[in-house]
Design goal:
The protein is 38% helix and 1% strand. It has 296 residues and is mostly helical. The protein has a domain of 99 residues. A hairpin with a 4-residue loop joins strand 1 and strand 2. Helix 2 crosses helix 5. The longest helix has 21 residues. The structure holds zinc ion (2 copies). One zinc ion (ZN) binds next to helix 6. The site of one zinc ion has 6 residues, from helix 6.
Length: 296
Protein backbone atom coordinates (compact mmCIF):
# COMPACT_ATOMS: atom_id res chain seq x y z
CA UNK A 1 0.00 0.00 0.00
CA UNK A 2 1.43 3.43 -0.88
CA UNK A 3 2.56 5.38 2.18
CA UNK A 4 0.17 8.28 1.46
CA UNK A 5 -2.79 5.98 2.18
CA UNK A 6 -1.61 5.04 5.68
CA UNK A 7 -3.43 6.61 8.58
CA UNK A 8 -1.40 8.85 10.88
CA UNK A 9 -2.29 8.28 14.52
CA UNK A 10 -1.34 10.76 17.21
CA UNK A 11 1.61 9.73 19.36
CA UNK A 12 0.99 8.56 22.92
CA UNK A 13 2.12 10.66 25.84
CA UNK A 14 3.56 8.34 28.49
CA UNK A 15 4.22 11.11 31.03
CA UNK A 16 2.12 10.58 34.13
CA UNK A 17 0.03 13.51 35.27
CA UNK A 18 1.02 14.89 38.62
CA UNK A 19 -1.69 14.23 41.17
CA UNK A 20 -2.84 17.47 42.85
CA UNK A 21 -2.31 17.50 46.63
CA UNK A 22 -5.05 15.69 48.59
CA UNK A 23 -6.70 17.10 51.70
CA UNK A 24 -8.16 15.12 54.62
CA UNK A 25 -11.49 17.01 54.33
CA UNK A 26 -13.41 18.43 51.36
CA UNK A 27 -11.79 21.56 50.00
CA UNK A 28 -15.02 23.48 50.44
CA UNK A 29 -14.90 26.91 48.79
CA UNK A 30 -15.52 29.78 51.23
CA UNK A 31 -18.34 32.00 49.95
CA UNK A 32 -17.69 35.54 48.75
CA UNK A 33 -13.91 35.83 49.18
CA UNK A 34 -12.86 39.26 47.91
CA UNK A 35 -16.39 40.69 48.24
CA UNK A 36 -18.20 42.59 51.03
CA UNK A 37 -20.28 39.45 51.64
CA UNK A 38 -17.30 37.21 52.48
CA UNK A 39 -18.30 34.30 54.71
CA UNK A 40 -17.30 34.19 58.39
CA UNK A 41 -15.06 31.40 59.70
CA UNK A 42 -17.80 30.14 62.03
CA UNK A 43 -20.22 29.96 59.11
CA UNK A 44 -17.59 28.07 57.09
CA UNK A 45 -17.14 25.52 59.90
CA UNK A 46 -20.91 24.97 60.01
CA UNK A 47 -21.05 24.31 56.26
CA UNK A 48 -17.90 22.16 56.38
CA UNK A 49 -19.42 19.96 59.09
CA UNK A 50 -22.72 19.72 57.16
CA UNK A 51 -20.84 18.74 53.98
CA UNK A 52 -19.40 15.75 55.88
CA UNK A 53 -22.72 14.88 57.53
CA UNK A 54 -21.44 15.50 61.06
CA UNK A 55 -22.11 18.09 63.74
CA UNK A 56 -19.72 20.98 64.35
CA UNK A 57 -18.91 19.40 67.74
CA UNK A 58 -17.71 16.22 66.05
CA UNK A 59 -15.67 18.16 63.49
CA UNK A 60 -13.96 20.14 66.24
CA UNK A 61 -13.31 17.26 68.63
CA UNK A 62 -11.97 14.72 66.18
CA UNK A 63 -10.36 16.80 63.44
CA UNK A 64 -9.60 20.35 64.58
CA UNK A 65 -8.73 19.80 68.27
CA UNK A 66 -5.81 17.37 67.60
CA UNK A 67 -4.15 19.84 65.23
CA UNK A 68 -4.84 22.71 67.61
CA UNK A 69 -3.27 20.80 70.51
CA UNK A 70 -0.25 19.91 68.42
CA UNK A 71 0.32 23.52 67.38
CA UNK A 72 -0.05 24.70 70.99
CA UNK A 73 2.76 22.56 72.44
CA UNK A 74 6.42 23.53 72.81
CA UNK A 75 8.48 21.66 70.22
CA UNK A 76 10.38 19.66 72.88
CA UNK A 77 7.09 18.14 74.00
CA UNK A 78 6.08 17.12 70.50
CA UNK A 79 6.55 13.40 70.92
CA UNK A 80 3.92 10.96 69.73
CA UNK A 81 3.37 9.85 73.34
CA UNK A 82 2.69 13.32 74.73
CA UNK A 83 0.41 14.17 71.82
CA UNK A 84 -1.55 10.98 72.51
CA UNK A 85 -1.98 11.96 76.17
CA UNK A 86 -3.18 15.44 75.21
CA UNK A 87 -5.53 14.00 72.60
CA UNK A 88 -7.09 11.66 75.17
CA UNK A 89 -7.47 14.56 77.58
CA UNK A 90 -9.19 16.65 74.92
CA UNK A 91 -11.68 13.89 74.12
CA UNK A 92 -12.51 13.53 77.79
CA UNK A 93 -13.19 17.25 77.98
CA UNK A 94 -15.85 17.87 75.34
CA UNK A 95 -16.03 21.57 76.16
CA UNK A 96 -12.60 22.18 74.68
CA UNK A 97 -12.88 24.59 71.74
CA UNK A 98 -16.67 24.39 71.84
CA UNK A 99 -16.86 28.12 72.42
CA UNK A 100 -19.60 29.90 70.52
CA UNK A 101 -18.45 33.53 70.54
CA UNK A 102 -17.13 35.51 67.59
CA UNK A 103 -14.20 36.77 69.66
CA UNK A 104 -12.80 33.24 70.00
CA UNK A 105 -13.11 32.23 66.34
CA UNK A 106 -12.86 35.43 64.33
CA UNK A 107 -10.57 37.82 66.22
CA UNK A 108 -6.86 38.54 65.98
CA UNK A 109 -5.86 36.07 68.68
CA UNK A 110 -3.25 33.30 68.64
CA UNK A 111 -6.01 30.77 69.23
CA UNK A 112 -7.93 31.95 66.17
CA UNK A 113 -4.71 31.83 64.14
CA UNK A 114 -4.05 28.19 65.17
CA UNK A 115 -7.63 27.20 64.44
CA UNK A 116 -7.52 28.78 60.98
CA UNK A 117 -4.19 26.99 60.33
CA UNK A 118 -5.76 23.68 61.41
CA UNK A 119 -8.67 24.10 58.99
CA UNK A 120 -6.25 25.19 56.27
CA UNK A 121 -4.37 21.90 56.75
CA UNK A 122 -7.58 19.87 56.77
CA UNK A 123 -9.09 21.46 53.66
CA UNK A 124 -5.97 22.48 51.75
CA UNK A 125 -7.47 25.93 51.26
CA UNK A 126 -5.08 28.86 51.53
CA UNK A 127 -7.85 31.47 51.50
CA UNK A 128 -9.46 30.50 54.81
CA UNK A 129 -7.76 33.37 56.65
CA UNK A 130 -9.99 35.88 54.84
CA UNK A 131 -13.04 34.47 56.64
CA UNK A 132 -11.77 35.95 59.93
CA UNK A 133 -10.13 39.24 60.88
CA UNK A 134 -6.70 37.58 61.06
CA UNK A 135 -5.65 39.32 57.89
CA UNK A 136 -5.91 42.61 59.81
CA UNK A 137 -2.90 41.44 61.86
CA UNK A 138 -0.61 42.90 59.24
CA UNK A 139 -1.97 46.37 59.99
CA UNK A 140 -0.88 46.10 63.61
CA UNK A 141 -4.17 47.66 64.65
CA UNK A 142 -6.22 46.55 67.60
CA UNK A 143 -9.88 47.36 68.08
CA UNK A 144 -11.70 46.59 71.30
CA UNK A 145 -15.18 45.08 71.29
CA UNK A 146 -15.13 44.64 67.55
CA UNK A 147 -17.82 41.92 67.48
CA UNK A 148 -21.48 41.94 68.39
CA UNK A 149 -22.38 39.68 71.33
CA UNK A 150 -24.58 37.38 69.21
CA UNK A 151 -25.11 36.44 65.58
CA UNK A 152 -27.42 38.78 63.64
CA UNK A 153 -28.85 38.14 60.21
CA UNK A 154 -30.85 39.67 57.35
CA UNK A 155 -34.11 37.71 56.77
CA UNK A 156 -34.28 39.09 53.21
CA UNK A 157 -30.83 37.67 52.38
CA UNK A 158 -31.85 34.26 53.78
CA UNK A 159 -35.10 34.33 51.78
CA UNK A 160 -33.33 35.36 48.56
CA UNK A 161 -30.68 32.66 48.90
CA UNK A 162 -33.28 30.00 49.63
CA UNK A 163 -35.33 31.08 46.61
CA UNK A 164 -32.26 31.00 44.31
CA UNK A 165 -31.03 27.67 45.70
CA UNK A 166 -27.87 29.29 47.10
CA UNK A 167 -26.29 28.07 50.38
CA UNK A 168 -27.46 29.81 53.54
CA UNK A 169 -24.50 31.32 55.36
CA UNK A 170 -23.45 34.21 57.61
CA UNK A 171 -21.25 36.95 56.14
CA UNK A 172 -18.38 38.17 58.33
CA UNK A 173 -19.81 41.68 58.00
CA UNK A 174 -22.85 40.76 60.14
CA UNK A 175 -20.53 39.89 63.04
CA UNK A 176 -18.96 43.34 63.31
CA UNK A 177 -20.39 45.38 66.16
CA UNK A 178 -20.82 48.71 64.31
CA UNK A 179 -22.76 47.05 61.46
CA UNK A 180 -26.51 47.25 62.09
CA UNK A 181 -27.96 47.06 58.57
CA UNK A 182 -27.82 44.84 55.52
CA UNK A 183 -26.21 47.02 52.84
CA UNK A 184 -27.91 44.99 50.13
CA UNK A 185 -31.51 45.19 51.38
CA UNK A 186 -31.31 48.46 53.31
CA UNK A 187 -32.91 46.95 56.41
CA UNK A 188 -31.81 46.41 59.99
CA UNK A 189 -30.27 43.07 60.87
CA UNK A 190 -32.37 40.81 63.06
CA UNK A 191 -31.18 39.77 66.54
CA UNK A 192 -33.81 37.39 67.92
CA UNK A 193 -35.88 34.51 66.59
CA UNK A 194 -39.41 35.71 65.89
CA UNK A 195 -40.92 32.50 67.22
CA UNK A 196 -39.07 31.91 70.50
CA UNK A 197 -37.17 35.21 70.95
CA UNK A 198 -33.83 33.38 71.28
CA UNK A 199 -30.46 34.88 70.48
CA UNK A 200 -28.35 32.91 68.01
CA UNK A 201 -24.70 31.95 68.76
CA UNK A 202 -21.94 32.44 66.20
CA UNK A 203 -21.12 28.74 66.20
CA UNK A 204 -24.02 26.29 66.22
CA UNK A 205 -22.62 23.04 67.60
CA UNK A 206 -25.29 20.53 66.64
CA UNK A 207 -26.78 19.66 63.26
CA UNK A 208 -29.29 22.54 63.15
CA UNK A 209 -30.36 23.26 59.58
CA UNK A 210 -28.70 26.33 58.09
CA UNK A 211 -30.79 29.48 58.57
CA UNK A 212 -32.94 27.95 61.31
CA UNK A 213 -33.19 28.92 64.99
CA UNK A 214 -30.81 26.94 67.22
CA UNK A 215 -33.50 26.66 69.93
CA UNK A 216 -36.85 26.08 68.20
CA UNK A 217 -35.77 25.28 64.63
CA UNK A 218 -37.93 28.04 63.08
CA UNK A 219 -36.85 29.45 59.70
CA UNK A 220 -35.04 32.75 60.34
CA UNK A 221 -35.75 34.12 56.89
CA UNK A 222 -39.37 34.82 57.76
CA UNK A 223 -40.52 38.41 57.72
CA UNK A 224 -43.50 39.50 59.78
CA UNK A 225 -46.32 41.13 57.81
CA UNK A 226 -45.96 44.44 59.60
CA UNK A 227 -42.28 44.44 58.61
CA UNK A 228 -42.86 43.43 55.01
CA UNK A 229 -42.70 47.00 53.75
CA UNK A 230 -40.07 48.07 56.25
CA UNK A 231 -37.27 50.12 54.83
CA UNK A 232 -34.62 52.13 56.57
CA UNK A 233 -35.66 55.67 57.36
CA UNK A 234 -32.35 57.13 58.48
CA UNK A 235 -29.71 55.49 56.38
CA UNK A 236 -26.81 57.93 56.46
CA UNK A 237 -24.57 56.70 59.28
CA UNK A 238 -25.75 53.07 59.50
CA UNK A 239 -25.60 52.57 55.77
CA UNK A 240 -22.22 54.28 55.43
CA UNK A 241 -20.73 52.02 58.13
CA UNK A 242 -22.06 48.84 56.48
CA UNK A 243 -20.82 49.98 53.06
CA UNK A 244 -17.29 50.94 54.12
CA UNK A 245 -16.75 47.89 56.33
CA UNK A 246 -17.96 45.71 53.48
CA UNK A 247 -15.40 47.38 51.20
CA UNK A 248 -12.75 46.86 53.87
CA UNK A 249 -13.43 43.12 54.08
CA UNK A 250 -13.50 42.89 50.29
CA UNK A 251 -10.15 44.65 50.02
CA UNK A 252 -8.33 42.77 52.79
CA UNK A 253 -6.27 40.56 50.49
CA UNK A 254 -5.40 43.55 48.31
CA UNK A 255 -4.30 45.58 51.32
CA UNK A 256 -2.11 42.73 52.55
CA UNK A 257 -0.21 42.57 49.30
CA UNK A 258 0.00 46.35 48.82
CA UNK A 259 3.76 46.89 48.17
CA UNK A 260 3.78 50.45 49.50
CA UNK A 261 2.38 49.27 52.82
CA UNK A 262 5.20 46.77 53.36
CA UNK A 263 7.65 49.65 53.71
CA UNK A 264 5.69 51.01 56.68
CA UNK A 265 5.30 47.72 58.51
CA UNK A 266 8.23 48.36 60.80
CA UNK A 267 6.79 51.70 61.92
CA UNK A 268 4.77 52.07 65.07
CA UNK A 269 1.08 52.04 64.21
CA UNK A 270 -1.67 53.44 66.41
CA UNK A 271 -4.00 51.40 68.56
CA UNK A 272 -7.62 52.47 68.22
CA UNK A 273 -9.99 52.15 71.12
CA UNK A 274 -12.88 50.81 69.07
CA UNK A 275 -13.78 50.29 65.46
CA UNK A 276 -16.79 52.54 66.02
CA UNK A 277 -14.54 55.37 67.22
CA UNK A 278 -12.23 54.94 64.23
CA UNK A 279 -15.16 55.02 61.80
CA UNK A 280 -16.63 58.15 63.47
CA UNK A 281 -13.32 59.95 62.98
CA UNK A 282 -13.15 58.93 59.32
CA UNK A 283 -16.79 59.94 58.78
CA UNK A 284 -16.36 63.37 60.37
CA UNK A 285 -13.12 64.17 58.55
CA UNK A 286 -14.38 62.67 55.30
CA UNK A 287 -11.66 60.03 54.92
CA UNK A 288 -12.23 56.66 53.32
CA UNK A 289 -11.30 54.07 56.04
CA UNK A 290 -10.00 51.64 53.42
CA UNK A 291 -7.53 54.22 52.11
CA UNK A 292 -6.64 55.20 55.67
CA UNK A 293 -5.83 51.63 56.73
CA UNK A 294 -3.94 50.90 53.53
CA UNK A 295 -1.34 53.44 54.65
CA UNK A 296 -0.61 51.60 57.92
ZN1 LIG B 1 -30.00 41.42 53.20
ZN1 LIG C 1 -36.55 30.13 67.78
Amino acid sequence: MPVEYLTNYESWDFDTNELPPRSPLYSLLPIGIGTPAVESFTSYLTRLAAAHGVSVTTLIRYKIAPLFIESSQPTDLLSAYSIRILMDASLKKPTMLLIQTAGFWLDLTQNASKLVCAVKTLTGRQDIQYTSLLSMQRWRLKFNNIFHFSQRWCPDCYSDWLECGKPIYQPLLWALEPVTVCPHHQRYLQLRCKDCNSLQPFLILDKTQAGCCCMCGAWLGQILEEEANFKLLSVDWDNWVAQVLGKLLAATDVLITNPTRKETRSLECPTFNSLNWFLRQCYQIGINPVECLSNF
